[in-house]
Amino acid sequence: MWLKSSGLASQAPLTPVARPSAGPRALWPPLDFTLGALACCGACVFTNPLEVVKTRLQLQGELRARGSYQRHYRGVLQALWVVGSTDGLRGLQKGLTAALLYQGLMNGVRLGFYSYTEAVGLTDAPGGSLISGAAAGALGAFIASPAYLVKTHLQAQTVAVIAVGHQHNHQGVLSAFVSIYQREGVMGLWRGVNGAVPRVMVGSASQLATFSSAKDWVTRAQWFDPHSCLTALTAAMISGVAVTITMTPFDVISTRLYNQPVDEFKRGRLYCGFVDCLMKVCATEGIMGLYKGMMPVFVRLAPHTVLSMLIWDVLRQRALLYRH
């Protein structure tokens, strides 16, 4: 008989075996969590400068009609140059510590949960990959929301001459957590989570489902050796395109909700929630306002998806081979 690949776990596809398979192979959950966290943290180190630029572009011209504000950032390369020349090279890695914390928590939970649903066969049902990916993303986004909040604040901070959006003026990651807690309490650390959960649900569902499907397709086409990294690389590139198209509007709304200032009653000064933000952006900036920063979103997401999915797939393959 033939052993079929189970999506994200790189098992030996189309390999003859002497006896029936014992079923889906799963890693020890804490190990799967660790591998997912390591994979996405490794990718984050390289893509964080693009995340800084994406955040600035999405906050630029907030709730203002096109042409009525000064554009400090005009594209990915120009924005990278402006940030680097004004804030220095360290400015390109603003919020890196919070970003690593977010990636480790969110993706450790997300990828670990998804691989578990895959191992028990939930992803084999019709729509199973989409539902499992969305559920995994929602869980990861909720747990890691405070880290994303601080990351957004820190990456928006800069000198007045190129500042966009509200400036929170935190002194660092720890002081940001303390400041938010003292001002808004525990619930303040989860402010903006109503934008983060749908953002990551959509992105996670499209990323994991398309990666699984693309990987199976490339494997069946036998373009590469079954154990080649090129199989995961090709699938991750396809997945990156899908994530960019589906997630950008949710990403813009999430960034706006996280970065908005709050009043004395601990309520957002600009938006009441996800739907209110969506309506206000469309009314003042037009539909294209929801796609601000789409190019840096793709430029960041494509390599991030490629790196994180590739590293995770390779690490899990090695762990499975070591275990068996």
From TrEMBL:
The keyword Transmembrane applies. It is found in: Mitochondrion inner membrane. Residues 1-21 are annotated as: Disordered. Pfam families: Mito_carr. One of its GO terms (cellular component) is mitochondrial inner membrane. Solcar repeats lie at residues 27-120, 124-217, 227-318. Coiled coil: none annotated. InterPro entries: MCP_dom_sf, MCP_transmembrane, Mito_Carrier_Antiporter. Keywords: Membrane, Mitochondrion, Mitochondrion inner membrane, Repeat, Transmembrane, Transmembrane helix, Transport. SUPFAM superfamilies: Mitochondrial carrier. It is a multi-pass membrane protein. It comes from the Eukaryota. Its main location: mitochondrion. Belongs to the mitochondrial carrier (TC 2.A.29) family. This is Solute carrier family 25 member 34. The gene is LOC113102973.
